[in-house]
Amino acid sequence: MKIDKCIKEVERDSRVISRACRIPYFPLVVESIKGSIVKDIDGNEYIDLLSSAGSINVGGANEKVKKSIIEQVNKYVHYTPGYLYNKPMIDLAEKLVKITPGEFPKRVAFGLSGSDANDGAVKFARAYTGKSSIISFIGAYHGVTYGSMSMSAITTKMKRKLGPFLPGIYSFSYPNCYRCNYGKKEGCCNLECLNQIQIAFDSYLPSDEVAAVIIEPIQGDAGLIIPPKRYMKKLYELCAENGILFISEEVQQGFGRTGKWFGIENFDLIPDAVILGKSMGGGLPLSAIVGREEIMQSLDPPAHIFTTAANPVCCSSAVSTINIISEDGFLKHVNEVGNFAKNYLNNLKDECSIIGDVRGVGLSIGVELVKDKISKEKNIKGALKICYRCYEKGVILICLNGNVLRIQPPLIITKDEMFKALEIIKSSIEDYLQGNIPDEVLNTIKGW
Ligand SMILES: Cc1ncc(COP(=O)(O)O)c(C=O)c1O
């Protein structure tokens, strides 16, 4: 594998880009993308299992998306929706109110990133309810603006040196059945994690001062943790009983990722609002909050205007992306390839000493690596080494929360490509177990 040109560019990059802006993985400089295959500037090809951190669900160079972008660019690139109107934005908003869960009147507020949409959700929730407290979850990653970071509780590394954060944010345990904080076995508990919220309501957090619960329907960066259905139902009921808005944070799990349009649909719940980003723009910067009309009309302008939000090029790209996901058979394909991958990985788990857990819905699959299955001690070095070996063998794979392999390819990945990638993961795990991946790779691949 020749990577001379990549190395040169990475060296240039390291002299001018802030280290706060990149998580070190591999020296891969992207030249082009075709389907699920990424090509680097040295001509090496990789099967992409990362899909630009879940932001190119229909691929990073989808022909239909490219066409809609070019058509719009040929007309004009931007005029701010803060003052004038643009048709792609209205087209998109109409689509969003239709595809998001809930048959009630809704409105949309656009932004540029998942982070700002999370901030917006806090603003709308506070304005509508007249209450200030927000419930979020340990393990959550909501972004890097001050509001979204205040609700994030995944690693102190991202919060160090930055406080004080937004007041009124309370983070509770997310139900992680593989690593239950309360020592319970999956399916044999009394939802002790949920009970912590009730304890808080009884002791220090007046429930009538809580504006919203903001929750990822599958906790992404924490390691693709899937909450039990009964937890989500009870949490939803708790919100309803206490007049608290239930907001689904769909930045990572939305737009077909879980084999349904939105992650929350896996739980048959209708949220008051959804927070959208990443793949919505088909790879271009775009975010939105879509919620009940009365919530979304509760703020006065300019409380949530960004000069370059709802850019017509991004909105055209988003409309095209939604049309592709709406095509017959698209979500069925996501489920089929996802089930195929999960079966493969579950079989691998049975024969492999370091795979502690395989979990996922659709094409959002996590493979948790441990030192052994009894202690469940996180195998962070192993995960990094395996990701690096996968890169050397032609697969882009990263880990979440230290030790969870993140399998989130573009949703258009073929079954053959997925099989090839899984075989490479398997052989990379074998290389690791045989001690064939040198420690030196850890100088390059570092993760969070
Ligand atoms: C669940 C979730 N919410 C919010 C964000 C932040 O989105 P952005 O990076 O577009 O600001 C991310 C990014 O990884 C995410 O995974």
From TrEMBL:
Protein name: Aspartate aminotransferase family protein
SUPFAM superfamilies per UniProt: PLP-dependent transferases
Cofactor(s) essential for the protein: pyridoxal 5'-phosphate
UniProt xrefs under InterPro entries: Aminotrans_3, Class-III_PLP-dep_AT, PyrdxlP-dep_Trfase, PyrdxlP-dep_Trfase_major, PyrdxlP-dep_Trfase_small
Source organism per UniProt: Clostridium fermenticellae
Family: Belongs to the class-III pyridoxal-phosphate-dependent aminotransferase family.
One Gene Ontology term of the molecular function aspect: identical protein binding
Keywords, alphabetical: Aminotransferase, Pyridoxal phosphate, Transferase
Pfam families in UniProt: Aminotran_3
Superkingdom of source: Bacteria
Signal peptide feature range: none
